[in-house]
Amino acid sequence: MRSYINGRQAVTSNDFIELALGTPVELWLGVEGESEVERAARLDAARDILADDPGMPDDVIRVAAAAIEDHAAELFDVVSLARPVARRRSARKGVAA
User: Fold this and answer.
1) Regions of the chain with pLDDT less than 50
2) What is the rounded CA–CA span in Å between residue 46 and residue 24?
3) Structure-derived torsion over alpha carbons of residues 39, 44, 49, 51, reported in degrees to the nearest 10
4) CB proximity list for 34: less than 8 A, separation 6 or greater
5) C-alpha angle with apex 29: 23 to 34, nearest 5 degrees?
6) What was the pLDDT predicted at 3?
7) How far apart are CA 50 and CA 21, in angstroms?
8) C-alpha–C-alpha distance, residues 25 and 18, integer Å
9) Distance CA 84, CA 87 (A)
10) In terms of Cα–Cα distance, which of 48, 46, 25, 44 is closest to 36?
């Protein structure tokens, strides 16, 4: 089954996020090894996008909440781990020589 958002095919989870946000994920999260100049330019572009679309943070929150709701079973599948048995040291009685 193929999934399309606004006429574009979404194949990976990053595709869904990018199409839902309307921007690449890297714009908001950055990339490994980016320089200070690249980071400043990326954040500047992000500020411009937020200035043009002040409702975007609300849209992002809605998308994140829907994703959490849809995948809550997998996200919050908590398994109890066995606790290690604590070893007690025996107290030595007597006087050292």
Assistant:
1) none
2) 11
3) 140
4) 42
5) 110
6) 67
7) 11
8) 6
9) 9
10) 44
